[in-house]
Amino acid sequence: MTEHSSTVQPSLSVLTPEQLEQAHQFSLEILSAVGLRVDSARALTIFSRAGAGIRVEGERVFIQPEMVDWALKSAPESFPVFNRHGELAFTAGEGAHYGVGVTNLFYQDPQTDEISPFSRAHMALGTRLANSLPAYELVSTLGVIRDVPAGQDDLYAVLEMAANTTKPLVILNSDEKQFAASLDLLEKLSGGLAEKPFAIPYFNPVTPLIINRETGDKMITAIERGLPVIYSNYGMAGTTTPITAAGTLALLNAELLAGLVLSQLVRAGAPIILGSLPAFFDMKSMMDFYDPQTILINAVCAEMMAHYHIPHAGTSGSGLGWGADLPAAGMHWLNHLTTSLGKTGLVPFVGGSLGSKAFSPTSVVYANDVILQARHFTTGFPLNHTSAALDEIAAVGPGGNFLMTKSTRQNFRNAYFTSGIFPRLSLEKWEEKGRPEASSLLRQETLRQIAESKAPDDHDHILATGEEFIRQLG
User: Fold this and answer.
1) pLDDT tens digits for 431-452?
2) pLDDT, position 285
3) CA distances from 456 to 124, 215, 402 (A)
4) Measured between alpha carbons, how far is residue 62 from residues 58, 242, 289, 334, 344 in Å?
5) Is residue 165 within 8 Å of residue 154, measured between CB atoms?
6) Which of 11, 118, 275, 342: disulfide with 313, CB 3.0–4.6 Å?
7) What is the average pLDDT across 284-309?
8) Within a 10 A sphere around the Cβ of 414, how many other Cβ atoms?
């Protein structure tokens, strides 16, 4: 008899087909009836030339459903992302890929939790840490460097990132005057940025319903240079989006579809990744934050992009808590488990704390452990006659044990997850070791990882080449 084999594999599904279509129709209604404001003259010109599917009235652009349909068919479902050496790192549009970031203003010391302005040295340290940890497949701009000459912070940011990892980069540029030069620098360091892209620029429109000048201009520049881009919006429910989850979804999704249309009008077939960072705004504390409802909206956005056959980027569960503490741990688990179970694509911004203002190496190391566990959970297990071990169960019988059975001997080393941070301690062992605290073990592991993380072999050459490039720019 032929043995039937299957895999028990958990997954998260949020929307019915009818709900997907309804959400899509809500977004189409917003684009065609409400429209959006476009502050970029370059983008306005491109929209104006699009033809009957788009109506432009001053700075207001109204996009008809047929133009959205065209853009959805034009954009690629997936595309390769390479490392700095030109080797395939992963395929955008296939699976979840985690990264460290993003644009923090401060650095949180892993030993003392003290806060200091984010520096060039912090960029190098954090990038090397992300380079060494297995859960992370990319590095996003970790912070805003504040100890370099004015007008050169973005240049030094991409230089330190490129010098301290070979993993793909997500580039967030704070100064549009440095944007083209930053791309020129990366081209200089790689010799083929557009041919085998290892850096993906990241852009945000202004919610609600504005393509601001800087975003529009930089996005057009990147696409014209043949680069893939990430177009992602950030909404605060009750402030920049409706407080209802459905209203937030409809509005943010409409903005993403507008960005998609612009990208394809710039160059049909241009690779683009779309996604949202939905959050709440607390009027009492004047803080924005993620919570279970916004994580659900993130999962819904991922399903919308999967329905559209467009690569996705979403939330990273960072920002809550005052370091790698209990509030932060809960949000990391909620985000990374639902991400691994759902349709999420890139998860590029792990590592922020204190309202996403401080880069926390301890959070990066802790989240690495969480992500590996979440992936282990979603791997599932085979269900067949062999894996059910019926012959062994029959041989052992009632009252026996499976310590020395064949399946135990073959699988005991990799059958279960083993944390790289927290050992399994019985009560007796815990007391014998002086009752260690989990937070202390995490700090120790973080400091060890930082001390042992190494820059790529070509670090010095990349750094020297980049330093000379920046000097010549003046």
Assistant:
1) 999 999 999 999 999 999 999 9
2) 83
3) 12, 32, 45
4) 11, 21, 31, 37, 29
5) no
6) 275
7) 94
8) 9
CA distance 282 to 49: 42
Q: What is each CA distance from 33 to 237, 240, 467, in whole angstroms?
A: 22, 19, 50
What the block records as the tokens of 286 is 């004047």
- What lies within 8 Å, CB to CB, of 70 at 6+ separation is 53, 264
**SS3 breakdown of the chain: % helix, strand, coil, rounded to 5?**
45, 20, 35
DSSP assigned state of 235: E
Q: Is 212 helix (H, G, I), strand (E, B) or coil?
A: coil
Q: Could you give the C-alpha distances from 222 to 7, 157, 227, 397, in angstroms and in order?
A: 42, 18, 6, 66
Q: Please, where in the chain does CATH 3.20.20.480 lie?
A: 77-242+268-378
Per-position DSSP letters for 375-425, written without gaps between them: HHHHH-EEESTTTTTHHHHHHH-TT---TTSHHHHHHTTTSS---SS----
Per DSSP bridges, beta strands 352-353 and 358-359 are: antiparallel
What are the residues whose beta carbons fall under 8 Å from the beta carbon of 261, sequence distance 6 or more? Answer: 54, 63, 67, 68, 71
Arch. (CATH architecture) of 77-242+268-378: Alpha-Beta Barrel (3.20)
3 falls in which pLDDT band (50, 70, 90)? low
φ, ψ of residue 167 in degrees (nearest 5): -70, 160
Alpha carbon separation from 136 to 59, 62, 165, 197, 327 (Å, rounded)? 41, 39, 11, 18, 22
**Which strands, in side-by-side order, build the sheet including 36-38?**
54-57, 60-63, 36-38, 210-211
pLDDT of residue 413: 84
Produce one character per residue of 67-86: b if its CB has 16 or more CB atoms within 10 Å, e if not: bbebbbebbeeebebbbbee
Helices (H), 191-235: 213-224
Average pLDDT over residues 288-315: 96
Write out the H or E segment, with its range, that includes residue 371. helix 361-379
Both tokens assigned to 70:
């065209």
- 142-175 burial: b if 16+ Cβ within 10 Å, else e: bbbbbebeeebbbbbbbbbbbbbbbbbbbbbbeb
Confidence of residue 192 (pLDDT cuts 50, 70, 90): confident
Average pLDDT over residues 188-203: 89
Q: Alpha-carbon distance 217 to 203, whole Å?
A: 10
Length of the chain: 474
Backbone phi, psi, residue 8, to 5°: -80, 110
